[in-house]
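So, can you check what follows?
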Amino acid sequence: MDDKRELDPELNINFELEVDNISRFIRESLASKLHRRGLVVGMSGGIDSSVCAALAVKAIGAKKVFGILMPEHDSSGSSTDLGGILAEHLGIEYVTENISSSLEAIGCYSRRDEAIRDVIPYYDETWKSKIAISDSKGHEINHFSIVAQDAEGNECRQTLPLKSYLQIVAATNFKQRLRKTMEYYYADQKNYAVVGTPNRLEYDQGFFVKNGDGSADIKPIAHLYKTQVYALARYLELPDSICSSIPTTDTYSLSQGQDEFYFSLPYPQMDIALLYFNQSRPAKDLAKKLNFSESEAINIYRDIVRKRRTTEYLHMKPLTLFE
């Protein structure tokens, strides 16, 4: 596919029917299960939250949808700009809540930087950084590295030991959890429900933070693959700046694609890999489709299984002695 956002024919859907079904699901859920008056959407300017906000407006009208922009110290300025553009485009009420000071107070940045200095001793607050994952096509086990850039633009990369990696992730997870706290504040204030924005890749493979962006009352696009979400954005006639945006985590100070941090494949290929796996198609079919070797395709399937297994607890309800 020349356009990374082009929808593969094997993932084609009836968009009119899809919008109708999701809208009905939202309305019925609010009325019969959630018993809430409207919906709160945390808007990052990314494709998933943008489509969720647009679908919410389609379902219940702009007056019952409330958007929140939640930038922080490491956020890209374009994220807030895109979120504002979307809110104006949809005609919804929204607020901007900068969460930097709260994150600083809870130790998000200092705890992260402490862990980075375990492997890069001279790292300080003038540097930028991100985490990157190894390529799963040729490896049995993924490993993570810290990529850091000083104020002059000089870059270094160091493999992360498990302790440092876990502390960096634990510290940055404050961001998703604090954002969700803000969403539920406004939801409680307005008697609204909170919209979760994961697509099928993220939901299936556990690419979310428990009690953070994984927490929500309704998840309207968790059944849609990433390229389907992009196609749906175009069908809904969202602004081109959003439809053409490149997906990022917007969590680290250096620009970081989702395939760098978690999926290890560009999302159009990951869509196909998960689709074929869900259809129980042999690895040789995936290899032919993506022009990989069969051994690379097998490793991709193994990585899907491994992620499902290791992130299973993210989907679990709290354990109790009774059902």
